Amino acid sequence: xxxxxxxxxxxxxxxxxxxxxxxxxxxxxxxxxxxxxxxxxxxxxxxxxxxxxxxxxxxxxxxxxxxxxxxxxxxxxxxxxxxxxxxxxxxxxxxxxxxxxxxxxxxxxxxxxxxxxxxxxxxxxxxxxxxxxxxxxxxxxxxxxxxxxxxxxxxxxxxx
Length: 160
Hints:
By secondary structure, the protein is of the alpha/beta class. The protein has helices at 27-31, 47-59, 61-66, 80-89, 105-110, 153-158; strands at residues 13-18, 21-26, 35-41, 71-76, 97-100, 113-115, 123-125, 128-133, 136-142. The strands form three sheets. The chain has a five-stranded mixed beta sheet. It has a two-stranded antiparallel ribbon with strand order 1-2. Strand 6 (113-115) and strand 7 (123-125) form a beta hairpin.
C-alpha cells in the first residue's frame, strides 16, 4: 500500500556520507520533531535528477527554510558512496541531506518502488516529494511515469 497524507513515515535506516565517512541515520534522526522536505530520485547521477531535481532543492533551500522547513533531504536507492560522490559533484554542501536507501527498505515501506530492470537499474524509487512534520506526511507529490513536475522544489514552495 502506498503512503498517503496523514500517515506516519515508516521506521527505516539510512546511510549518509560525512567528512568522517559513512554514518547511519534512523528515521527518527531525520524526521522526529522536525519539518522535513523530502524528495526522492530514481538514481544519483541520472539526467533529470542531476540536471533539475537535486539542483532545484539546493537552489531553493533558503526559501524552503524561510517557510518553516527545518531540513531538506533527498533519498535514493543508491549506496552511501554513490550518494556522497553525487553530493560532491553537485556542490550540495549542507543544504540537502543525502540519504542512501541502499537496499530500498524505506522506499518499499512507502510503497513507492519503481522497477527499473528494463533499463538495467533494478529496483529504484519513484520520483516524489513530501513534507513531513514530526514524521507525519502533510503533503505528498508523486510523479506520473517519467515526468518531473509535481516533485520539484518550485511546486513544493507553492504548496506552503
